[in-house]
Amino acid sequence: MTLSVLSVASEAFPLVKTGGLADVVGALPDALAPHGVATTTLIPGYPAVGKAVKGTKVVRRWRDLLGVEARLLGARLGEHPLLVLDAPALFARAGGLYDQTDDWHRFAALSRAAADVAEGFDVLHAHDWQAALAPAYLRYCGTAQRRTASVMTVHNIAFQGQFGAEIFAGLDLPDEAYAIDGVEYYGGVGFLKAGLEAADAITTVSPTYAAEIREPRFGMGLEGLIDTRRDRVHGIVNGIDPAVWNPETDAALPSRFTARALGRRKANKRAVEKMFGLDRDDGPLFTVISRLTWQKGMDVLVTCLDELVAGGARLALLGSGDAHLEAALLAAAARYPGRIAVRIGYDEPLSHLLQGGADAILIPSRFEPCGLTQLYGLAYGCVPVVARTGGLADTVIDANEAALAAGVATGFQHGEASHHSLGHAIRRAIAAYARPDLWCAIQRNGMRADFSWSESGRRYADLYKSLTGTA
């Protein structure tokens, strides 16, 4: 028996992407197909999506979808069905995907459309706060003709979709939904909170993060709710798509390579040096590919740059975020020309080159639900130097004495996001790099690990089957 799943999210690679959410949503259909799950993905009709998707057909119309006219367009996402919510009043606009003044309206409409369509599927799978009202709409507005199970995946609990109570009237929900076990949250409306309350199952993107968000330090105010539903919470590590992230076939690399041919990486390192205007030498080259935010520990990284350069290393950074962090990093680049280089923004092919050419990637996050950049690093022989939290702790094996003796180390972990802790991890990595045989062994261990979607896809499929009674 094939299970049908409607996966609803605010972005999906390769159509539209601001972060790892898009990579996950784009990869899930292929990951689930071998396990008897047929996935249809629903995303908003942003201008970029309209340009990328061809041969659409109208499969449904709404004259009044939370006050706007809308159509549902059928298309394809690779080999799998795609639904695009064409609501020009909400999504046909310039600017970023988020932080619009009417985000509550835009993503409530996406969720309501998902719930309306979901009753033709076995499972509704909602991703993050932008889709989190979909399980609530199923709960309060669904019909009894067919029972659709629902799954709520938390990619980052820090982003919750909290709005004032005044928006409730525009959600087209019954009065009973505005309750402590519904959409009400501290006197307002909480999108993510509503999805966590209504969903039949909750998943997070790593086992460690599933445990962490039951604590006040990581739960961001929702730890009590998560704890009361702990029997419904499942931690499933994200995977990466080997069709997109594979150093043996990656067109973004000047020199493709394998774990058996690591020497070919040097040409990529030279390309990074040239592109970033860095000195050409054989010392370690670190990279950062990240949002420049407090969560990502970028403020701590700034304090360690003098020490990194003093240790003979260099840094090529790609990212954007908080203005004061961008300024601090650019100032460091000006202070150390040829040793530190910063590019503000995001460039997908360049991120591939950095993974395939840099020696190590720094990820000093204060919390990290799963993280994908460390998985890309492992696959590309770009040794991760990571904080011991969330999915970083689950996916990187620290190069301590025991792991090195056993031949299983894949990177370097450090404790809290602090100057002392990160600085010590950087020094450990620099020392290991000075021992070429040891460094190559760490690289090869990471490259030989399996972080594809195979096991994660099976776990999601097993969860769907348990919810629908088909296990």
Automatic annotation (TrEMBL):
Query: Which reaction equations make up its catalytic activity?
Result: [(1->4)-alpha-D-glucosyl](n) + ADP-alpha-D-glucose = [(1->4)-alpha-D-glucosyl](n+1) + ADP + H(+)
UniProt keyword Cell inner membrane, yes or no: no
Sequence ranges assigned to domain Glycosyl transferase family in this UniProt record: 280-426
Biological process per Gene Ontology, one example term:
glycogen biosynthetic process
What SUPFAM superfamilies has UniProt attached to this entry? UDP-Glycosyltransferase/glycogen phosphorylase
**Residues the entry annotates as binding ADP-alpha-D-glucose:** K17
Ranges for domain Starch synthase catalytic: 5-227
Q: In which pathway does it act?
A: Glycan biosynthesis; glycogen biosynthesis
Query: What are the UniProt keywords, alphabetically?
Result: Glycogen biosynthesis, Glycosyltransferase, Transferase
Enzyme Commission code: 2.4.1.21
Taxonomy, superkingdom = Bacteria
MF GO annotations: alpha-1,4-glucan glucosyltransferase (ADP-glucose donor) activity; alpha-1,4-glucan glucosyltransferase (UDP-glucose donor) activity
Q: Which InterPro entries match?
A: Glyco_trans_1 (IPR001296), GS/SS (IPR011835), Starch_synth_cat_dom (IPR013534)
| One GO location term (cellular component) | cytosol
Task: Tell me the leader sequence span.
Answer: none
Matches recorded under HAMAP family = Glycogen_synth (MF_00484)
> What does the UniProt record say this protein does?
Synthesizes alpha-1,4-glucan chains using ADP-glucose.
Family, as annotated: Belongs to the glycosyltransferase 1 family. Bacterial/plant glycogen synthase subfamily.
The molecule here is called: Glycogen synthase
Which species does this protein come from? Answer: Sphingomonas taxi
Q: Which gene encodes it?
A: glgA
